[in-house]
Write a structure and sequence with these properties.
The protein has about 450 residues and is of the alpha/beta class. Among the domains are: about 5-35 and about 80-115 and about 270-345, FAD/NAD(P)-binding domain, CATH 3.50.50.60; about 120-270, FAD/NAD(P)-binding domain; about 420-455, no CATH class. Helices cover about 35% and strands about 25% of the residues. The protein contains 13 helices and 25 strands. The chain has a 6-stranded mixed β-sheet, with helices on both faces. It has a 4-stranded parallel β-sheet with strand order 11-10-9-15. It has a 3-stranded antiparallel β-sheet with strand order 4-5-6. A hairpin with a 3-residue loop joins β12 and β13. The longest helix is centred in the N-terminal third of the chain and has 20 residues, at about 130-150. Bound molecules: flavin-adenine dinucleotide. InterPro entries: FAD/NAD-bd_sf (IPR036188), FAD/NAD-binding_dom (IPR023753), NDH-2 (IPR045024). Belongs to the NADH dehydrogenase family. This is NADH:ubiquinone reductase (non-electrogenic). It comes from Luteococcus japonicus.
Length: about 450
């Protein structure tokens, strides 16, 4: 590091943060990339980790490894817990170590978490899907439900355990429901003696009246048809009003109510931007919207702070969607502006988004894709999906093993990543029970808070 060069701090190693850092390769700056995980996560394929197709390493390469040739970057594992926009400093914490960093330019790309629309207690029974931990917990719950169903003597309980419910019919929910259906009806065929997993119910619920609303009416209709053809029950206009260990309560747009008894529940319904957005808003003239996204200027900067950029999922600008391409392009744009400042050739054009389209996989060899006026369905859309996702997986090693795992899953019908552990299933809730004072360190832990009410882990 060269102390006389401008210091760029980037928060986040997701699409926004990583692509900003890469764009600054060769620039006359020192970069510190701070992220609360040591990997770059390809979130669009999390559902394949959750359903046993891919391993975590294939979609989450080490950030250090990706950036090892780029000498102007230092990668730090730490969670940013404080910011002072006036003093231009951030505070970050990891495993008992606190770090203070000062910056000349700051790019905040901390993404978004799951939103339960004010019902955070639903999370206990219906985990979301935002991280590797989430995907592994869901994998343990999906395969665990089948195991307990094989064990139980109670017919009603067996039926409940063989009911899988996915909430949210966006791309993640559609892909997840499609994969659980394939897993139960094909992957585990012939492996159980008492239960017939192909008789499992897989439900996909959404309060909206269509699946995949941004894809337009025609593709939404095709996607719903295909889901139903493979045996997914799609319930639309269905708002979830309650989630508990045993199932969910629904209220339909026509006021009808319904109770669904279900074992494994997956929440793929809403997003809430990183709390860092609110922290920035409190120290600036910027505002946050209902989803906690920070309203930025046309150049992705924070009002009153031209040295601070907010990009990707946690930014609100021109109603842009929370998708990977927006994060990549805004991250690269912020980097270009910093290069412009450093070289004395300022970038004055506002950020302009180039929409490259969207796609969702429904089943083996079946997908929908929309790019401008081009709409594809079925096998051609699936091939386009395969090629594009392979292209964006980082590193040849991961691309190669992903291709092998896809061949095993899509051609052979098996899945190579079915390992689940007790810790994967219960660790999130166990850590929650230890309370906010629980501070893990690498050599052990500080004294955890006394746990008053110990709950037994269950699949529900
Ligand atoms: C299951 C799923 C499926 C998706 N499918 C698609 C799809 O098919 N197509 C598509 O275009 N988009 C898809 N998306 C959306 C896409 O992944 C996001 O839009 C994109 O990841 C946003 O990039 P980002 O850099 O803003 O945030 P993220 O990629 O979420 O990265 C945030 C980074 O910030 C770090 N971080 C967060 N808080 C802190 C903190 N306090 N301190 C330090 N570091 C912090 C995180 O560790 C992470 O490294 C999907 C998302 C999910 C969850």
């Amino acid at each position: 590091m060269n102390n006389s060069r401008p210091h760029v701090v980037i928060i986040g190693s997701g699409f926004g943060g990583l692509f900003a850092a890469k764009r600054l390769a060769g620039a006359d700056v020192d970069i510190t990339l701070v992220a609360k995980t040591t990997h770059h996560l390809f979130q669009p394929l999390l559902y394949q980790v959750a359903t046993g197709i891919l391993s975590p390493g294939e979609i989450a390469p080490a950030t250090r490894e990706i950036l090892k040739e780029q000498e102007n970057v230092r990668v730090l594992l730490s969670e940013v817990t404080g910011m002072d926009l006036e003093a231009r400093t951030i505070r970050a914490e990891a495993l008992g170590t606190t770090t203070e960093l000062s910056y000349d330019h700051l790019i905040v790309a901390a993404g978004a978490g799951q939103s339960y629309f004010g019902n955070d207690h639903f999370a206990v029974y219906a985990p979301g899907m935002k991280s590797i931990d989430d995907a592994l917990e869901l994998r343990a719950r999906i395969f665990g439900a089948l195991e307990v169903a094989e064990l139980t003597e109670d017919e009603q309980e067996r039926e409940r355990l063989l009911t899988f419910v996915v909430v949210g019919a966006g791309p993640t929910g559609v892909e997840m429901a499609g994969q659980i259906r394939e897993l139960t009806s094909q992957t585990v065929k012939g492996e159980y003696r008492r239960i017939d997993p192909s008789k499992a119910r897989v439900l996909l619920l959404d309060a909206a009246d269509r699946v995949l609303p941004p894809f337009g009416e025609r593709l939404s209709g095709k996607a719903k048809e295909k889901l139903e053809a493979i045996g997914v029950e799609v319930k639309l206009g269905a708002m979830v009003t309650g989630v508990d260990e045993n199932g969910l309560d629904l209220k339909y747009s026509d006021e009808r109510t319904e109770r669904i008894e279900g074992g494994c529940k997956v929440w793929a319904a809403g997003v809430q931007a990183s709390p860092l957005g609110r922290m920035i808003a409190e120290q600036s003239e910027a505002e946050v919207d209902r989803a906690g996204r920070l309203q930025v200027n046309k150049d992705c900067t924070v009002p009153g702070h031209p040295e601070v950029y907010v990009v990707g999922d946690m930014m609100s600008l021109d109603k842009l969607p929370g998708v990977a391409q927006v994060a990549i392009q805004t991250g690269q744009y912020a980097a270009d502006r910093i290069i412009g400042d450093v070289t004395g050739k300022p970038v004055t054009r506002p950020f302009r988004y180039h929409d490259k389209g969207s796609m969702a996989v429904i089943s083996k060899f079946g997908a929908v894709m929309k790019a401008g006026k081009v709409e594809l369905t079925g096998f051609p859309a699936w091939v386009a999906w395969l090629a594009l996702h392979l292209l964006y997986i980082v590193g040849f090693k991961a691309q190669f093993t992903t291709l092998v795992h896809w061949a095993i899953a899509f051609v052979g019908g098996a899945r190579s990543e079915r390992i689940t552990t007790r810790q994967q299933m219960v660790a999130r809730l166990a850590v929650q029970q230890l309370g906010e004072d629980f501070r893990p360190t690498v050599t052990g832990t500080q004294q955890p808070k006394k746990v008053e009410d110990k709950a037994e882990p269950t699949i529900g």
